[in-house]
Structure formats: structure tokens, C-alpha cells
């Protein structure tokens, strides 16, 4: 199979346009189409060698069995010849191109209805909780959250066992993980309830990512990890006498760890979604470092390292999400960090000029490299 087709299929799979089994089916069809002409030409060359060989070769002695199989060594040669022609035509039909297997697409209406159903259920739980939270007893609060979590997770599990509506099942599972964490917090309450709720939600999300491998579960995992960083920073790692500006750096470090975790997940699951969320984690870390006292330099470093990694990934994978997330982080973090460092608009402008020059040079270098690879 041509390497160009292989690269294109790899790019489509990484971008989420095709699924791995669809790309594999297209790859197998392309290999079959490429192998058919070669096999037909080799069969034709072998047929010519059996007939008479090359012009300068002496005549070959053909046995009676060969002549009878060829249709020329028996009185009923015409009939045998016809049967031989029929066999050749049948084999020729066998080498004809077969259409690639068609992928079965799920009904868009069913997917939309499933998403709407899950959103309505979550909205009903949220409205019921907000409206009657003061009047509801502890048992009613726990039963409401637990019932919603069981319904969402149970529906997602049934769809996964039936191997139908993979995206819908992963979306329902992601909602169920968040609701289960909230129900755990309601059941335990206090600082311990927040930590245990995050742990339960994260465990369910990890199980869902391992089993269902849906992109919505990656988003849920990122959200749960982000909440976990804030909860651990506020309830576990921050002393009571500490201020918010002094603990923001702890949260910034936690978001760097979240970015590392999402980058590792991207090696085995949806790479575009996972690495884009890793960039979002680096952005959150930069914001935390901007709140931290004298954390502008760290915010600038983190806000540069994340986009740089995304732009390098964009140069190799050509996924537009990398470029969008990376450029967005640069456009937000660089002006704010430079203004806090210099306290001057002119310094911000000079810093942006330097950053734009570096980006343009990187674009030129990547363009030259791609041209050399093509040549």
C-alpha cells in the first residue's frame, strides 16, 4: 500500500474522522486492489509459458493429461475448451475489484435523543436539588443523587454490553461519573466528603476510559482531575493561616501534573482530545501562577511550554485542534504575564513582537523540513 495513503489514514484516525476498524478495512481493500493486477499479470505470463514458451525455445512435450486439461488432446476438445474458458472467465471474475466493506453508521437522531435525555435528567436533578435542598432530608439527598448515578451508569453499561451507540454510552458514563461523585460528597459531607467524592468519580472515569474509550470520558476525566486539584489544594495542602495568593502555586503545580496525565492517556486513547485537554491544563496552571505572588515568570514559562508542545504535535499530526489551543494560550498568557512583569504596555508590545518572530521562524523551519521530506 502507498505510504501516502497510510499517512492519510493515520491522520484521519488521529483526528477522529475515522475509527481504527474503518481505517483497517480501507487499508485491506487498498491492498487487495493493488495485489489483483499483479496476480493477474503473473497468471497470464505463466499461461503463455505453458502454451509455447519463448520464441527461441525448443518445443515442449505436453503430456496427455495436460492436453486433456487444456482441451486440445481429446475428441471432445471443443467442450473441454469451453469448460476451460468458463473456468478462466470465472477466475477472471474472481480478480475483479470488490467494493470495500461499508461502515455501519449510527443513527444521528438516536444519538441526539440520547444526549438530550441525559442532559434533561442531569438538569432535573440539578433543579430539584437547588429548589428543595433546604427542605430535603439527608436520606432524600443521598437517594436522589444515587438514583441519578445508577440510571446513567446502568444505561451506559447496557449500551456498552450490546456494543451499540459507543459515543452515547461514553457520554452517559461521563455524566454518571460526575453525579456519582456528587452523591458521595452528599453522603459523607465536609472536607472528607469532597476528597472521597472526587476519588469515587475519578475511579469510575478511569474505568470508563479503559472500557469504553470515548472522547467524552476524557473530558470528564480532565474535569474531575481539575476539581481534585482544587479540592486537595484547598482542603489538604493549604494551611488555615495561608492566603489564596500563596496557595495558587500549589494548584498550578497540580495542573501541570494533570497535563502530564492527559498526555500519557493520549498515547493509548483519542490523542487529539487528550493532548488538547493537556494544553488546557497547562493554561489553567498558567492562570494559577498569575494569581501566585511573583509567579509571572513561571506563568510565562508554563504558558510557553504547553503551546510549544502542541505546535510541534500539529507539525507532525496536522490536527487543527493543536494549533487552535496552542495559539489561544499564547494570546492570553503572554500579554497578561508581560504586563505584570513590566507594568508597561510598551513592554507587552515588545514581548509580543518577539513571540511572533519566534513563531514565524518556527513556521519557516517546519515548511522547509516538509519540503525536504517531499522531495
Automatic annotation (TrEMBL):
Stretches of the chain forming a coiled coil according to its record: none
Positions of the UniProt region annotated as Disordered: 25-102
Low complexity bias locations: 25-47, 63-73
Keywords per UniProt: Membrane, Transmembrane, Transmembrane helix
Lineage: superkingdom: Bacteria
Bias kind Gly residues: ranges: 74-84
Stretch forming the signal peptide: none
Entry's transmembrane regions: 112-133, 139-162, 169-188, 194-212, 217-237, 249-268, 275-292, 298-314, 321-339, 345-366
Protein name: DUF2157 domain-containing protein
Organism: Kribbella ginsengisoli
Lineage: Bacteria, Bacillati, Actinomycetota, Actinomycetes, Propionibacteriales
